[in-house]
Queue: 2 jobs
Job 1
Amino acid sequence: MHWRTDCATSVTRAMGERPLLSVRDLTIRSVTARDRPIVDSISFDVGIERVALVGESGSGKSLTARAVMGLLAPPLEARAERLEFDGEDLTRLAQRRWDRLRGSKLALVLQDARYALNPVLTIGRQIEEMLVLHDKAVDRKRRTREVLSAVGLADPRVVRSYPHQLSGGMGQRAMLAMMLANSPKLLIADEPTSALDADLRTQVLELMCERALTQAMGLLLISHDLHQVARYCDRALVMYRGRIVDEGSAAQLAASNHPYTRALWSCAPSGRTHGSRLPVFDREAIGP
Amino acid sequence: MTAVAVESLSVRLVDAAPPVIDSLDLAVDDGEVFGLVGPSGCGKSTLLRVLAGVNRDWRGSIELLNLRPKPHRRFRGGLRRDVQMVFQDPFASLHPRHTIARTLLEPLRLIGSERPRERMLQGLSEVGLDPRLASRYPHELSGGQRQRVAIARALLSSPRLLLLDEPTSALDPSVQAEILNLLVAVKIEHAMTVILVSHDMGVIAHMCDRAGLMQRGRIERVLGRDELDRV
């Protein structure tokens, strides 16, 4: 028995209030390689909560995020029975609607600020651009200052800085500020801390989770770190080779008896594992 | 006995900038697994590159396996065999247009191995790789397989000092576990001294007998096993 059964939150939510994001049978495949889908008919809901999508590289977690954002490029294509965000059917959204949605109600934070930020615009200009595109009425200078100080970048020099003048952690927080500028309903964060040092990881994650709680925002956190997810999220979906193989409350991850989740949880080295072999899992046993 | 003794080592990468390594002292015992841990930019990789003879622009004194390499000179004689390094990124550290066989045969020819082909296949199976992979190119292997090739390459000359620069940080957690198990096994098999650089305290605590905390080009504190056990 997996903890999929005892954690029925997504089901109850589906019956009661409508979830923010609802995904049914999402399949992603490459047009050039028809044989095996990269993401194979996955279903999940995200409400006003912190949900983690965990798995190792190649499991399809980033592609899932891109499909939800409508950012898959050929030769990849996504099909879904249902792909709904805040009452809108994402499978048949016109380009203009996408432009309105992305960066306002639906926002994405990427792994490495060094590549995600525009290198030739100051941080201030980039945040203001988000406001020009989505909310013309707002006092842009003031709102920019507000969101930057909300992520701990109150120093006025940051507004005038170019991305290369900021450290990795500051860049990541600037990107977060930019994404929070229009108070999104759902924030998707794709490995937002993988390029950061251990101290900065905690800082950025705490910041995101605090915003999720205080602003009643949904958070879909994509990560390969189970221990991190257990600390910061309410629920976790474990992906392996394009499928969701395990799901349940994040606090219960350690107690899961799915072989893949167990292996991922226990393979982390530490002082206690010194002198012993780390557990590795038998890839064949989990299936193709 | 001491395998590595470093005294007041300084390294500048840019002339005017502050030194990356700032009069650093380090002593590593023979057969020890010594860890270096610290934030990015603290100089841990630079220190390793000096000990590997890759970065030769340094000042101070170094004693490696009872030999004294000089600054601005390449390693000579025994040191070239006895000191080997495994780099962080297995995608960048293997020649993309050489087959695995060629990558492994080159060092064997250099050290004048008797039966290089046999020794190469033996090296592959020692790191848990199917000898049939010898005819493949790096891009045909997974990240974990590539790092195994890099470890096999380093072990071919039976080194006495193995330098590991973030050997698992580019790998998935489950693959990291496999590579760490392999490193522990080859360390016991070859009776080497190992210096391991990582930013991951968990990896350091799992692998090392002692570990130096680096900060701004110096080793601020050395942790023993009792402190590492608590990580």
Job 2
Amino acid sequence: MLLPKFYYHEPATLEEALRLLSEMGGAARILAGGTDVLVRMKLKIDKPSHLISLQKIPGIDVIIQRENHGVTIGAAVTAAELSTNELILERFAPIGIAASRLGAPGIRNRATIGGNLVNARPAADLSPACMALDATLKLKSAKNEREVRVNDFFRGPGETLIEPNEMLVSIFVETPPPWSGGAYIKLGARKALEISMVNVAVLLTLQSQDGPIADVKIALGAVAPTPVRAFAAEEFLVGKQPSSELFKEAGAIGVGMCEPITDHRGTMEYRCLMIETLTSRALNQAYNNAINWKPLPV
Amino acid sequence: MKRIIKLTINGKPVETAVSPNQTLLQFLRDDMNLTGTKHGCGLGDCGACTVILDGKAVNSCLVLAIQADNSEILTIEGLAQDGKLHPIQQSFVDKGAIQCGFCTPGMILSAKALLDQKPNPSELEIRTALSGNLCRCTGYQKIVEAIGEAAEVIRMREES
């Protein structure tokens, strides 16, 4: 399959990349891992006349721990890096697990977290994971810089509130408090190279090891035009003593948030059943991780 | 407009001009005549075009040749040394892990990338490493066995 012609730019600094982006507006696309944009160009779904590669820009592909309060993930960090990074797996588990379920090894070695978020596919792996962790996205243009919560970022399939002259440069995630645990479950017909039928990311925080639920975030993918938070289920859970029965009830409430479609991957009815089952399963997993929470070795 | 790239392919330095819209796969096959790397789906689904780029298995159909500037590439042609097959290749032959052979270069390079990182992989790790490589003759079981055996051969060779 052939790629149409385009101009290739390889800026050496972020400033230069942003200047190029603002000059070219909608005619340019960012090239990070290329596993989405090159596919769309080959299929002629997208026809940018310019590609701006991030390859030479220093520091955009690193994970930086912010003392104890959080982590900044560069937009060009690959899924492979996220799925093997100890800090991410230990403290920001939904992101690490979701990254390990994205595509297959060859794709994970190239695909980036920024690309997965900005492409805004309803079934993307990292979107619900970032939503469960309440991540903040830093968007930059040549003249401006703003921060938006990932929960406000998605507008529809392939649509976000990013402007054509803006670039997602990094993702900030606050470290969850003690006695937090995370989970991510992806359902598809096969285990690899699969587009989710339903995916669920959960972060659950207890008041103490045997205490009630202090806070919980549940994000669902592939169940609506954008990934969604199951706010009603979250509200139902907060303050209650965790149990499998409680999580089952929360799963049933979670279905209310979703408007899944029937397509070749699954019917609406099946998806609704799976939202219920997987939400309660993910809550159970997150709870088990929360009661086993440990301080990080210094 | 074409640009000059410098890279190492199978240990040999190469300096040449490429077009921006040339994929690494097209460059290897058409310009370098390294046709062991196969063109399957062209969309990153089948893994037939897998090569090792700076130590990592990638789908060469989704990498631009220009992006491979300053990198080190290993293709299936670079595995055999002095006319002797690499242990993974030999074990594919011995185990009958090849039918039509179209997926084989990609399978072997995915396996090589795995064994370079994990010399003693579990069966699950082998299957995960191969999860982006499709075989339509359906020979996965033999392939998994061949890689397990190759891992043993390589470990024994390094010990002795």
